[in-house]
Amino acid sequence: MLRKTSYKEIMNFEAPYIHLFKNSLGYYLFDVNTVKVLKIPKYLYLDLYHNPCDTRDWDKDSIDYMTSLKKDGYLSNHRVKESEHPLTEFLDDLVNHKLSHITLQITQNCNLRCEYCVYSGEYRNRIHSNERMNCNTMRDAVDYLIRCSSDADRMAISFYGGEPLLEFALIQECVEYALMKTEGRKVTFNFTTNGTLLTKEKLEFLVHHDFRITISLDGPEFIHDKHRKLAYTSKGSFDKIIENLEYIYDAYPEFYQSNIQFNTVIDPLNRFTIINDFIRNNKLLKQSMFSSTLIDDTYAINDISHDDQFDEEFRYELFKIFLWKTGWLSREDISPLLVSYYGSLKKLAKMIETMKRDRIPEKFHRGGPCVPGIQRLFVTATGELYPCERVSESSPVARLGDIDSGISLERAERILNVEQETSEMCRNCWAYYFCTACIAKMDDGTRISTTKLSEQCNAMRSSVESELSDYVVMKELGYQWELDA
User: Which of 77, 105, 205, 384 could form a disulfide with 14 if both were Cys (CB 3.0 to 4.6 A apart)?
Assistant: First the structure.
């Protein structure tokens, strides 16, 4: 009688570093070391899923398949041994020569009181105040950008609030000072606004200096005005925004098409279809670029609720993107709100398609943290420096330094290497490569917290698994990711 072989004999007593998932098209294995997704037979999926480390005997089909995968270089148990970001040794040079973008918090005040704004009082890290940036701090910040960007390909200055247009005179002065000091080097300017203060006089200046403007608009009037109300009143802001958009659309049509985009904060208690149909059927919006996010729960005091119907409609519109990319639908059929999701999916697909690796390096760092002080250095109204505007400015953990003394390399290195605080839990996570958790997801207000990170992990892994599933669906439908430039 033929002796059966156990799982432990096949794997030499080592559980492989893998993740299993399935969808309507089949059963899949994500091999972490090689960063590859493999379609596998159902019998193997079930054997691996139910009791991967038991001592029971396996049938010949499973044994043969596992043995073949191992011969092809898959199913390694190898993990990172030492947590260190690959750019750590270059951090000094990057911080002092590669800075490309600063975000200036020119005010902490706003003429609206949006319920889900990080300054609303519903979040632990910020509140509205009358704090504003003065001219000296602004000039110091511009000088810092110029001084630390000698090897950068570009320079950009963003204005941040509160509502940045409350300090329009400071914006004007900053632009004039930056253009004078940069001496012909290309510098771009942008900001996000609630759209209510875009007067004719301000627009003349903004158009002349080719500003990139993102306007916050959450949907039709009854949805937008539910959260976005004028300060100290119950009046919504929708009508004023539409009035201003109509003026820009008529007076500066080319600028409107090339320089105006929109950000929609989606309350998942609303119907996704209603928001989507409003945008697609409005002449001011249907040709525009949109980015969209769900109400942010980072630092939120209360949980964010979801509606099942919203989730169903969201997934349906997402599926239509796959049909568009595989030639079944046209671009006009697609929700503008979800095109940005495709960008995220494309990034994951590119990594899978282009990665040439037998196993994860001995020394490495999970995804998540950007290089602090390089891409979006955040300068607060009082001149303190943070990695970006998303982190908590009320916590000492994420503070990099100040505009007078510059960035502390010791602090920057710690933020870049946040995995060193959570290495045991991170290096055993199958989503290691795709993790998006940075210091903002790990800061509990006083320290880098493994507990706070753990709260984010399940949602993050669920999101990555969803993207992996979407990736293989498009692959199964014949989409050639490797040709997507």
Answer: 77
